[in-house]
Design brief:
By secondary structure, the chain is of the alpha/beta class. The protein is about 30% helix and about 25% strand. About 40% of the residues are buried.
Amino acid sequence: MEIIPVIDLKGGQVVHAQRGERDSYRPVRSQLCRGSEPVDVVAGLLTVHPFATLYIADLDAIQARGNSVASIRQIRQSFPALRLWVDNGLADPVACRDWLAQGLGDLVLGSEAQRDRAILHALSDGDARCHLILSLDYKDDRFLGPPDLLSAASLWPDRIIVMTLSRVGSRGGPDLDLLRRWREDAPAKKIFAAGGVRGGEDLLALADCGTSGVLVATALHERRIGRAEIAAVDSDAA
């Protein structure tokens, strides 16, 4: 199971995401680094483990208040071996293709930003499809997005994030029942969990669910997940 650290970018800083209440996010205070400059935070995360992938939520773009492309470019230049998954709220196929053409990383399509399943049709060709991740976003047990997206599994890319926004930064534990449901309903897809992970026991529980990976932020910054906990679920790290 792959552990994927997460950074949320807002106003040029990494902020601490909590329960999806984005207007209340404040600069992150981490035990891994000083300050909240994006490159410094990523460098701090990489002291824990040589992560292969970094998830970036561009909150400015998601909320239509600008974007964090300059910070993302800086991260790409500073850590060229790191794969980037970027959620920037795009819902237009042309804009998605234009963004992918920049070569900054793979693109996360958040369900909360989509209007219908048409974008999956438009991006179904091989080159674009292999650089997409679909995030099924939930908040307070409610799916955020067009209902027809849930019935379009044949159009989904291979990687699916089950994002429980109300559990992000909550230390409330992952929604194992929801993850098990999607593991059963989409057996051919790689399922990645996001939201609520507290420590090593949650990682083991997610691995038992057949989860391919998990997105983590707070537990890394608070040192509740470290080398030993990662090695317990990732044979490449052992």
